[in-house]
Amino acid sequence: MKRWLYQHRYAFAVALRRLLSQPFSSLCNILVISLSLAVPIVVAAVLDTARPVVQQIPVSAEVTLYLERNAPPDAARALADTLRTQHAQEIDAIEVIDREAALAELRRRPAWSEALAVLPENPLPDAVVVTLRQHPEIAATSERLSAQWQALDAVESVQVDSAWVQRLQAMLDFLRMGLWLLALGVAVVVLATVFNTVRLQALTQREEIAVARLVGATEAFVRRPFLYLGAVTGLISSALAVVASWVALQPLNSAIARLAASYGTQLALQLPDTVSLLLAGIVVAILGALSARWSVTRHTSF
């Protein structure tokens, strides 16, 4: 056991010595990896902040049917009775909005009274507001019913009041998928950078490795310092990426705070939780070690 610990301690010391022996090259590689890692961390912070905000937005399960302007006066109530009968299991409430009542309501508002006074006739249509029952598939139900009701006689247009929230949720899902693709690209950057670093180290120490083999060094003994080199590079890069992400979030938080204040709320971007950051750092270290193993195996076969 002591011998095993000594070998790993020796390999770790050799890896640090090799990392410090070429400070400029090592710093460039670490900066490339850390900046690549900082991008998905910032994107994840934005998504984690936006997701609860979207979930707290009240999604109205209302579908508004606007009738044609030349529809008979009783057409809206007849349509409401028909919908209540045919879709009793899906409808929670129905409200008929008379065009004359809607016009009178607008005329009581100072911003609209002068504009409506010059109109020769009522430009508003009768409307039927349908409130659907809440259930997990409310989005699909509202889309299906709105498409079905659009084809009804005397109905000119149908509006789903929660459509913009659904579009926002779809956009967040799209960005979340893009985050996974971005993380995959970052993994490729980590593999390529560590692979090239270890390749140069292996070629530089070609004679040293050959001599070590002549005196009986095993392949595991030869590879172990390179594996630690890849893992240490990944860990340092991960820590630097977290610091860079935190620094990048400060001006973003200042801008988003001013935007949120204009809507009378508070909002701040936060880094992902500590456990997620630690797991990400471990994954990057493992990727660095695997890339180093692949590189040293490929370039020390002599």
UniProtKB/TrEMBL annotation:
Compartments where found: Cell inner membrane; Cell membrane
Superkingdom, taxonomy of origin: Bacteria
Domain ABC3 transporter permease C-terminal: 181-299
Pfam families with a match to the protein in the record: FtsX, FtsX_ECD
Gene3D superfamilies from the UniProt entry: 3.30.70.3040
Mode of membrane association: Multi-pass membrane protein
Domain (FtsX extracellular) ranges: 62-158
TM segment ranges: 27-47, 177-198, 226-249, 275-296
Protein keywords: Cell cycle, Cell division, Cell inner membrane, Cell membrane, Membrane, Transmembrane, Transmembrane helix
Family of the protein in this entry: Belongs to the ABC-4 integral membrane protein family. FtsX subfamily.
Free-text function comment from the UniProt entry: Part of the ABC transporter FtsEX involved in cellular division.
Protein known as: Cell division protein FtsX
Species of provenance: Yanghanlia caeni
